[in-house]
């Protein structure tokens, strides 16, 4: 038989009081310690996703989010519809060639992807926030502070992924915090911990990126040649001034099929050209006005 | 689980779920594993990451299919034809693992010459009694010797049964190792399955020939010394009138491929609830006592203790220990009241008189025979077959006690149910007094779960339940205590059992019994000292030991040492058997029949698949697992037949299936099954097509049927019900729906009932997703929403094109996620062995629109 599955440090705790807290539990459950000053994120490997939605439930339970209850949508098995103020994880379902009998290894022909806030670097929502309610944490994640948010909503159109939403209840912006409170306690985020097939993996972004690159190669070797990463530096998803997505994805079809933009960009990138264009226009108008004035005189 | 019991000796999963990671090929069939067992499916994904082939054979393309390399579509109810075709392919092309199957199965055993198969007798096995609609198994016996069943019910109705089995003391069963004898099991098997040609498979199952052959080849390729494959199945195999035989077909396949008792090999019976395995072990079934001992039967030779032990004790194999387990159980039940005068308590045990399982219970309720019903952790209005018959039955009761965590559909049948909705009864006409008692959730009480692979895991109480909610243990204990109080003064003989019950569990200040005290009794202790026993090997048949369930012996070997609490996994360098995590019955063995992981000489079949081996210098078997064999029995041990050996002494060192009286896996099962020694394809009770194997013998001949006005059955091929209907579960909901339909975060995931309809049929009917549709069967009609999808496909069966519809059965009117009750459509028909219903394959009609409401309820 093959070796055991538990993290070596698990054994330190098995003989002790099981009621006692485990410091840095994330090391046992995700294989990584959580330390401030490092970048953390998610690697969501869609080829391992079975669409069980445990991530959606774990997220709502931990973050105490209400159910939206939109009712039966008729869109495959997706009944929560989209990411929003109350849905910080959302599993997209796409039936594509479900009559096949031979398929590439791992998920195919019925695509499922657990979508989440990308915790972009740099983050357009944060750049658009006039109050400083949106900030970058010591874990390099992007979090809204509801007590500071004034509900202006600038962050909503700024997000190229449609993640941030104002809640009807309080009029303020809400989105995934990458379980900021859990990270502070050394715990793995709720969605990643609940994922039964490790489709959602949590860890330091660089380590996840390495793992993801190896996974793409491994899939290729096994016959899944369509796999690619979305949101790693230089790749699709990390475009238009966004250097990388701290929550990135392994996909096997075009981004649009998963409801992801093929080439997202930072609205703020348009600010300097717009500003300069505006200045130029004003300068032009001033010159024209001066000339007209001169002409009249 | 009689199929695994009859084939391998124990009715339970043969491997731990994490061992699936060591598999080279995983066939998931009769199960939507990714959706309904996502945690276990994790290990399939691990196997996949190590390069295994994953196959899903199913009527629907599900979230499991999406993860598979090969998806084999097949019509619901055609599993035996599919698997039988694979067996035929293996035998015709000599692709089976001969070195394994020849010594370790009964392939070479010679069957009596009177045996005839359904290919020779027009669809029936020999021994068919048309009048009684049952088989006599006399002609299925081995040549000259009767081998009792290894199932709970060892006794077989054959004249001179007990004497005929005594021949097992005299020598081995008759064998022809050359496999040439026309009546040896190999030849019978080959003849039997020769009819399962690829053409026949395609015609019956609708699965394209090339897909089916690809599956067969993948399984064959991943067997032998170096490689193993596993099969995972769930109720998609059980819920048929031939469910036991479907599982048997899978078991035969694995026995032929050498896929049992070895790493990454076996049959994983996936159980639907957290402790369904445990409830079978501790005997919620009417005909079982704890530990798979048969409940005494009024019409069998069970009258006295001696009679009972005589027919139920196997002369050879492990079950020869039967008297120790039974007498110890009686001591645990009755304590000091179990005396030599009352057969050590045997005379106190109630007798069964027939089939008392859920389906006949439903009919008896509807007929007014049953007056009161306890419903605990179940929602029969949603989950029971023929829901309107169930509701009619509930309406006939004097009283109904529902214990649950919320007001279930069953508790409100009198107000919101179909009788009222359809205008058949008004609430004021229903006289049933309903008591709703709040139950507690698992975190609100202590106890154990026994999971799908026989693993006991203890859980503590972490928080007090709200309000008046109580544990099942609390309720049952105090109910028993109060009943005993009521009968204390009675002198009537029929009240003696309840007065004699040993019912002295310690309780805390809130009256909650100590769950560990119950586990200590289940483990076993000496009598009357009550000192805990280390294992079931310490049990005695003289009344000096008590044991609540012998197979759990050793779970609590010393005071303060509850092994179900153990939480020590193997580290990354460990062997991966995780013997320190929980406790698996029997004796903490993780892989059953693991002697078979070594060759007859005791060497591992290969280094890659090493698990158990014989160590000549130590003179005992070695393994990182607990050994499911006599630890010191040499591989070359042969019984000394001159001494008339009994029990384990009569099994040789090369017979790994110790629960079976002749020590080998039963490819051909001479006794114990009621519908044949080999599996044969029969159509479901309701089917759109004739049986291509035997036109005229459509369904499984001895399948159970109960005639009732409210339970009409559509005739095979009835044009009014042209579509095949299969019911199933979704990952988002739990069975009868109570725990998930009342919770907003799970309710919103699948908020409403629906019916999956293939695109072609939807086009014909002009249907789009979320349109209303009405489904009907002879039992009733329901309305639900359409979900049009390519994941269901039309099947071409010969000349016919058949559509298949899929219907989740979680829904009812209670809670937030609601929908009509799928089981209004299903019938009360049952498997002849288990009484299991047939909700995976029936026929129905479909039309667009909604139902007219007669009862005024919305």
TrEMBL record, chain A:
Provide the protein's localization: Cell envelope
One Pfam family, short name: Fer4_11
| Binding site residues for [4Fe-4S] cluster 2 | 59, 176, 179, 191
For this chain, one GO molecular function annotation is: metal ion binding
The record lists [4Fe-4S] cluster 1 as bound by 49, 52, 55, 195
Q: Which domain of life is it from?
A: Bacteria
List, alphabetically, the GO terms of the cellular component aspect: cell envelope
Binding of [4Fe-4S] cluster 3 occurs at 117, 120, 125, 159
Q: What is its main location?
A: other
Question: Biased composition, Basic and acidic residues: where in the chain?
Answer: 9-18
Give me the segments passing through the membrane. 275-294
What cofactors are annotated for this protein?
A: [4Fe-4S] cluster
Q: Which Gene3D superfamilies match?
A: 3.30.70.20
Stretches assigned to the 4Fe-4S ferredoxin-type domain: 40-70, 108-139, 140-169
Residues binding [4Fe-4S] cluster 4, per UniProt? 129, 149, 152, 155
Region named Disordered: 1-24
The note describing how and how many cofactors are bound reads: Binds 4 [4Fe-4S] clusters per subunit.
PANTHER family recorded: FORMATE DEHYDROGENASE, NITRATE-INDUCIBLE, IRON-SULFUR SUBUNIT
Kindly provide the name given to this protein in its UniProt entry: 4Fe-4S dicluster domain-containing protein
- The scientific name of the source species is Siccirubricoccus deserti
Write the lineage as a comma-separated list. Answer: Bacteria, Pseudomonadati, Pseudomonadota, Alphaproteobacteria, Acetobacterales
């Amino acid at each position: 038989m093959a070796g055991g599955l538990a993290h070596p440090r698990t054994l330190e705790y098995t003989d002790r009081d099981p009621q006692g807290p485990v410091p840095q539990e994330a090391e046992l459950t995700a294989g990584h310690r959580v330390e401030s000053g490092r970048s953390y994120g998610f690697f969501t490997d869609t080829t391992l996703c079975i669409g069980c939605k445990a991530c959606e439930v774990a997220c709502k339970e931990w973050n105490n989010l209400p159910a939206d209850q939109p009712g039966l949508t008729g869109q495959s098995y997706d009944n929560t519809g989209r990411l929003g103020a109350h849905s910080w994880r959302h599993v997209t379902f796409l039936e594509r060639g479900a009559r096949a009998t031979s398929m590439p290894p791992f998920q195919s022909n019925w695509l499922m992807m657990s979508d989440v806030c990308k915790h972009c670097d740099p983050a357009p929502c944060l750049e658009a926030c006039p109050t400083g309610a949106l900030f970058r944490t010591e874990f390099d994640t992007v979090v809204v502070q509801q007590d500071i948010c004034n509900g202006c909503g600038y962050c909503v159109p700024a997000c190229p992924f449609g993640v941030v939403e104002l809640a009807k209840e309080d009029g303020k912006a809400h989105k995934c915090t990458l379980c900021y409170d859990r990270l502070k306690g050394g715990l793995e985020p709720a969605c990643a911990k609940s994922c039964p097939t490790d489709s959602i993996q949590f860890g330091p972004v660089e380590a996840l990126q390495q793992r993801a690159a190896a996974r793409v190669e491994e899939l290729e070797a096994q016959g899944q040649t369509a796999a690619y990463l979305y949101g790693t530096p230089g790749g699709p998803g990390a475009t238009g001034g966004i250097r990388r997505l701290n929550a990135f994805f392994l996909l096997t079809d075009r981004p649009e099929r998963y409801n992801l933009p093929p080439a997202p960009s930072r609205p703020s990138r348009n600010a300097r050209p717009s500003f300069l264009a505006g200045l130029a226009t004003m300068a032009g108008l001033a010159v024209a006005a001066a000339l007209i004035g001169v002409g009249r005189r | 689980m009689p199929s695994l019991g009859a084939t391998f000796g124990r009715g339970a999963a043969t491997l731990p779920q994490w061992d699936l990671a060591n598999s080279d090929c995983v066939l998931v069939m009769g199960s939507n594993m990714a959706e309904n067992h996502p945690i276990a499916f994790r290990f399939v994904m691990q196997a996949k990451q190590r390069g295994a082939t994953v196959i899903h054979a199913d009527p629907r393309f599900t979230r499991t299919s999406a993860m598979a390399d090969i998806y084999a579509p097949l019509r619901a109810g055609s599993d035996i034809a599919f698997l039988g075709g694979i067996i035929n392919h293996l035998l015709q092309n000599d692709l089976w693992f001969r070195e394994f199957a020849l010594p370790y199965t009964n392939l070479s055993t010679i069957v009596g010459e009177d045996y005839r198969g359904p290919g020779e007798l027009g669809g029936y096995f020999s021994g068919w009694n048309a009048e009684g609609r049952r088989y006599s198994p006399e002609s299925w016996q081995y040549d000259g010797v009767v081998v009792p069943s290894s199932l709970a019910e060892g006794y077989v109705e054959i004249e001179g049964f007990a004497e005929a089995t005594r021949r097992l003391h005299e020598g081995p069963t008759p064998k022809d190792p050359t496999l040439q004898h026309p009546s040896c099991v190999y030849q019978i098997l080959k003849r039997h399955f020769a009819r399962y040609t690829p053409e026949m498979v395609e015609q019956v199952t609708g699965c394209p020939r090339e897909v089916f052959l690809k599956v067969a080849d993948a399984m064959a390729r991943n067997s032998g010394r170096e490689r193993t494959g596993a099969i995972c199945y769930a109720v998609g195999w059980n819920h048929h009138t031939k469910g036991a035989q479907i599982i048997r077909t899978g078991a035969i396949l694995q026995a032929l491929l050498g896929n049992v008792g070895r790493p990454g090999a076996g049959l994983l019976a996936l159980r639907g609830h957290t402790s369904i395995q445990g409830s079978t072990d501790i005997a919620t079934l009417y005909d079982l006592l704890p530990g798979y001992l048969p409940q005494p039967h009024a019409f069998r030779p069970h009258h006295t203790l001696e009679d009972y032990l005589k027919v139920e004790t196997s002369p050879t194999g492990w079950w020869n220990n039967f008297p120790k387990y039974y007498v110890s159980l009686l001591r645990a039940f009755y304590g000091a009241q179990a005396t030599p005068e009352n057969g050590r308590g045997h005379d106190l045990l109630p007798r069964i008189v027939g089939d008392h399982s859920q389906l006949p219970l439903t009919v008896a309720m509807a007929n007014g025979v049953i007056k009161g019903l306890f419903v605990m952790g179940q929602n029969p209005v949603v989950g029971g077959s023929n829901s309107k018959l169930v509701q009619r039955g509930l309406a006939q009761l004097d009283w109904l006690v529902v214990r649950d965590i919320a007001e279930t559909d069953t508790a409100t049948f009198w107000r919101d149910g179909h009788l009222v909705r359809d205008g058949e009864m008004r609430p004021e006409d229903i006289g049933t007094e309903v008591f709703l008692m709040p139950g507690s959730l698992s975190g609100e009480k202590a106890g154990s779960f026994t999971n799908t692979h026989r693993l006991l895991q203890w859980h503590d109480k972490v928080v007090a339940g709200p309000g008046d909610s109580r544990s099942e243990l609390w309720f049952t204990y105090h109910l028993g205590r109060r009943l005993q109080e009521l009968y204390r003064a009675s002198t009537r003989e029929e009240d003696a059992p309840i007065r004699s019950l040993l019912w002295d569990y310690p309780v805390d200040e809130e009256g909650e019994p100590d769950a560990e005290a119950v586990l200590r009794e289940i483990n076993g202790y000496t009598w009357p000292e009550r000192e805990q026993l280390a294992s079931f090997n310490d049990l005695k048949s003289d009344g000096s030991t008590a044991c609540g369930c012998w197979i759990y012996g050793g779970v609590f070997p010393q005071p303060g040492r509850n092994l179900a609490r153990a939480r020590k996994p193997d580290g990354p360098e460990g062997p991966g058997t995780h013997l320190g995590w929980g406790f698996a019955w029997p004796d903490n063995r993780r892989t059953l029949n693991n002697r078979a992981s070594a060759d007859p000489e005791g060497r591992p079949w290969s280094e890659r698949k090493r698990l158990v081996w014989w160590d000549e210098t130590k003179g005992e078997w070695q393994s990182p697992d607990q050994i499911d064999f006599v630890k010191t029995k040499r591989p070359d041990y042969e019984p000394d037949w001159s001494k008339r050996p009994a029990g384990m002494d009569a099994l040789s060192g090369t017979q790994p299936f110790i629960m079976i009286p002749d020590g080998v896996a039963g490819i051909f099962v001479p006794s114990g099954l009621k519908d044949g020694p080999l599996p044969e394809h029969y159509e479901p009770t309701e089917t759109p097509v004739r049986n291509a194997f035997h036109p005229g013998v459509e369904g499984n001949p001895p399948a159970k049927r109960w005639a009732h006005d409210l339970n009409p059955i559509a005739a095979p091929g009835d044009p009014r019900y042209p579509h095949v209907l299969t019911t199933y579960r979704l990952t988002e909901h739990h069975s009868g729906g109570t725990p998930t339909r009342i919770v907003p975060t799970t309710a919103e995931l699948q908020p409403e009932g629906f019916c999956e309809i293939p695109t072609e049929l939807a086009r014909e009917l002009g249907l789009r997703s979320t349109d209303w549709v009405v489904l009907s069967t002879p039992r009733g009609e329901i309305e639900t929403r359409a979900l049009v999808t390519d994941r269901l496909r039309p099947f071409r069966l010969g000349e016919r094109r058949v559509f298949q519809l899929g219907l989740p059965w979680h829904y009812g009117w209670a809670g937030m996620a609601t929908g009509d009750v799928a089981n209004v459509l299903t019938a009360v028909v049952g498997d002849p062995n288990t009484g299991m219903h047939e909700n995976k394959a029936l026929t129905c009609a479909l039309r667009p629109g909604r139902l007219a409401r007669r009862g005024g309820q919305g």
